[in-house]
């Protein structure tokens, strides 16, 4: 009986200490070194309400690029208040014909909601390479599971606005086109690994600024 009591006492004592040591938040300290777990916490005395407010998602992005698209991020690198909370957001602006090409977020699942326009969105499953895609209109939402290739294409006659929410303060991003053609990987290797034509690979490397 005494043994059980001691175990119970130890449990509640450690639980109480653990609960007391939990931080309400960990606002990112951009002046401190960044580690594998993310940003260090800003000293509480230096935290202000502005750390928990981000106004950039109300501003249209610049879509004057090859993708005719712009992504405005509100992740921990831009929005210190979400650091450590497991959430973040983004705004996607797509001009007519604009596209957010195949990409992945290795650290988060994503939910999008269409604020304006009509888009075609989808993802590819890793298990069977099944494509799940759907035309979405204003107010529609779609979820992209973590780590899976997905895309958005403006199929309407007007610009499109999409808001995205992530299950991480740092979802990560890798765009397939840039991964293949915006680096110094030798073109011969790109041809071997993608089965693309050599001249097409060289052309795409020139478009995206790659070498090799």
Largest sheet strand order: 1-2-9-4-7
How would you sum up the global shape? globular
Give the total of domains: 2
Q: Do you know the CATH topology of the largest domain?
A: Jelly Rolls
Largest sheet: 5 strands, antiparallel
Distance between the termini: 73 Å
Q: Give the low-confidence spans.
A: 1-21
By CATH, the architecture of the largest domain is named Sandwich
CATH level-4 homologous superfamily of the largest domain: Jelly Rolls
The radius of gyration computed from the alpha-carbon positions, rounded to a whole number of angstroms, is 22 Å
Q: Briefly, what CATH class of the largest domain?
A: Mainly Beta
Q: How many beta-strand runs? A: 10
- Beta content: 25-35%
Q: Structural class of the helix and strand makeup?
A: alpha+beta
Offer a few descriptive terms.
10 strands; 26% strand; alpha+beta; five-stranded antiparallel sheet; 2 domains; Jelly Rolls; 4 helices; 21% helix; disordered N terminus; 212 residues
Protein architecture, described:
The chain contains 4 helices and 10 strands; from the N terminus they run αββββββββββααα. With 212 residues, the chain is of the alpha+beta class. The strands form 2 sheets. The protein has a 5-stranded antiparallel β-sheet, with no helix packed on it. Strands 6-5-8-3-10 form a 5-stranded antiparallel β-sheet. The radius of gyration is 22 Å and the shape is globular.
């Amino acid at each position: 009986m005494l043994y059980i009591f001691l175990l119970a006492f130890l449990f509640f004592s450690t639980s109480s200490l653990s609960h007391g040591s939990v931080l309400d938040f960990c606002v990112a300290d951009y002046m401190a070194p960044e580690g594998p777990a993310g940003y260090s916490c800003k000293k509480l005395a230096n935290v202000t309400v502005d750390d928990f407010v981000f106004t950039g998602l109300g501003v249209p992005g610049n879509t004057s690029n090859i993708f005719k698209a712009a992504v405005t991020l509100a992740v921990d690198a831009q929005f210190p208040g979400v650091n450590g909370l497991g959430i973040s957001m983004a705004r996607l602006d797509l001009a007519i014909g604009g596209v957010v090409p195949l990409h992945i977020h290795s650290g988060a699942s994503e939910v999008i909601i269409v604020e304006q326009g009509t888009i075609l969105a989808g993802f590819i499953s890793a298990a069977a390479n099944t494509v799940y895609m759907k035309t979405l209109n204003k107010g529609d939402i779609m979820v992209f599971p973590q780590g899976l290739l997905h895309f958005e294409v403006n199929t309407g006659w007007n610009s499109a606005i999409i808001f995205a929410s992530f299950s991480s303060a740092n979802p990560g991003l890798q765009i397939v086109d840039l991964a293949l053609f915006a680096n110094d990987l030798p073109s011969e290797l790109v041809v071997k690994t993608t089965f693309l034509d050599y001249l097409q690979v060289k052309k795409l490397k020139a478009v995206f600024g790659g070498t090799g």
